[in-house]
Design a protein that fits this description.
Strand content: under 5%
Largest sheet: 2 strands, antiparallel
Pfam families: ABC_trans_CmpB (PF06541)
Number of strands: 6
Number of helices: 14
Oligomer: single chain
Keywords: Membrane, Transmembrane, Transmembrane helix
Helix content: 55-70%
Structural class: mainly alpha
Organism: Candidatus Mediterraneibacter stercoravium
Shape: globular
InterPro entries: CmpB_TMEM229
Protein name: ABC transporter permease
């Protein structure tokens, strides 16, 4: 089923509110007083809404298969909860929740009882809840529902931005230097910081752990030191290149043919691998000293969920299937299979334990000025490559039985990226 952005945002808002109600009830019972445990100040817990929207987009085809629907919802919800915990920890360098004392927990962020609960709730939302809430949505007359949904989305975006600013501000507001920083910024942004101050106090009450001062990660002196934007961009570039080379060699060995495995029209880059490397680095950077089995398990689950979502989103956006594992045992909808999930786990161990430290050191050896100039040249190139590739893929799908090119950009794309060229770049793609 195809959805409009307004319909998806409606689901996001509804389930974010339901999530907030659940979290507020749990926090209030635990603290014996009303507690707003949402990241934003308003009555929204965004992670719940994001989870249901992702499930609706990627798992709705499993709605008639309750067993696989439960598994899919459980895995996706667990991965989203773990990623959310990791990201929040990266913001403040402390855990916002901790399941370490619960049985069958992993990393303190996820545990089996909650994963089973999320599986049931997710499946119930997809099978029954979404139908009901879309029915309610249809009862709201236009343009009232558009004004309502988009007005709340704008409010939620502003609220989340202020809450994020408050979290970052808390990192620098402790100690003598922090007090001087706050005094200076208060003079410049008194009204804005009054709002931030309120959000800070709310967060300190709901999550006392974030009051502690954050440790310093980044040090001055080298280009792209630590795990910041420039380091991640270069890792994305390297991961995209290595992924394309790896898949090309793998196809040669297994299928006996050389074929393009690139995601982009210019250059040997597999962006699925590039984003996977960035995601693995961000989420596993602090766990790089943990046992291999820890990294392998996270890589297996995260890689499988990531590949499944990439497959579904690629089909939704471009109307094409870029890979099909239907003939491989233990596959799920042809989008992912158990064997390749294990490959993701092995790749995660090899990357974090073996390759990342070396690539990180090599990137940091780039002279600062050269690194910044080269980074932005490559950022511009990769952005253009992504835009042209997406445009070419969209036009490729439109040409299949669609109307002839009638605008300038369509004619340019058709001239430079005709069907033969696109088939050469994407030999395994199939129209939906």
């Amino acid at each position: 089923m195809e959805y409009t952005f307004t319909e998806l945002f409606w689901l996001l808002l509804v389930y974010s509110f339901i999530g907030w109600v659940i979290e507020a009830m749990v926090g209030s019972i635990k603290n014996k007083r009303f507690t707003n445990r949402g990241f934003s100040t308003g009555p929204f817990c965004l992670v719940y809404g994001v989870a249901v929207v992702i499930m609706e987009l990627t798992l709705s085809e499993l709605i008639d298969n309750p067993f696989f629907l439960l598994i899919g919802c459980g895995i996706q919800a667990t991965v989203i909860e773990w990623i959310t915990g990791k990201v929040l920890e990266r913001l403040n360098h402390h855990k916002w929740w901790d399941y370490s004392k619960k049985k069958w927990n992993f990393d303190g962020y996820i545990c089996l009882p909650y994963s089973l609960l999320w599986a049931v709730l997710g499946a119930a939302a997809l099978r029954y809840g979404n139908t009901f809430f879309f029915f309610l949505y249809s009862l709201i007359p236009n343009p009232l529902r558009d004004i309502l949904v988009w007005g709340l989305v704008i409010y939620l975006a502003a609220d989340t931005l202020v809450s994020l600013t408050a979290v970052l501000h808390l990192q620098h507001s402790k100690g003598p230097s922090g007090r001087q920083h706050r005094k200076f910024t208060d003079l410049l942004f008194r009204a804005f910081l009054a709002v931030i101050g309120y959000v800070e106090r709310r967060m300190e009450k709901a999550y006392p752990v974030i009051q502690e001062r954050a440790e310093e990660i980044l040090k001055e002196g080298h280009f792209a030191e630590g795990c910041g934007f420039y380091k991640l961009f270069w890792l994305f570039l390297i991961g995209s290149l290595l992924g394309d080379v790896t898949e090309t060699i793998f196809c040669r060995i297994t299928a006996g043919v050389w074929m393009s495995r690139s995601s982009l029209v210019w250059g040997p880059f597999s962006i699925v691998w590039g984003f996977a490397i960035v995601l693995a680095t961000v989420l596993l950077y602090k766990d790089r000293d943990k046992p291999d089995r820890h990294i392998f398990l996270i890589g297996t689950l995260l890689g499988g969920a990531y590949e499944y979502m990439c497959s579904v989103l690629g089909e939704i956006v471009f109307g094409q299937v870029f890979w099909d594992y239907s003939e491989i045992p233990f596959n799920l909808g042809g989008r992912v299979n158990l064997l390749y999930c294990f490959f993701w786990g092995i790749a995660a161990v090899i990357w974090i334990k073996g390759l990342y430290p070396h690539f990180s050191k090599w990137i940091e050896k780039i002279p600062k000025l050269t690194g910044y100039i080269a980074s932005w040249i490559l950022i511009v190139f990769m952005s253009a490559d992504l835009i042209v590739s997406a445009t070419a893929l969209i036009r490729y799908g439109q040409r299949a039985g669609g109307p002839a090119a009638d605008s300038g950009w369509e004619q340019v794309i058709d001239t430079n990226f005709d069907d033969a060229k696109m088939q050469e770049i994407y030999p395994n793609s199939k129209f939906r």
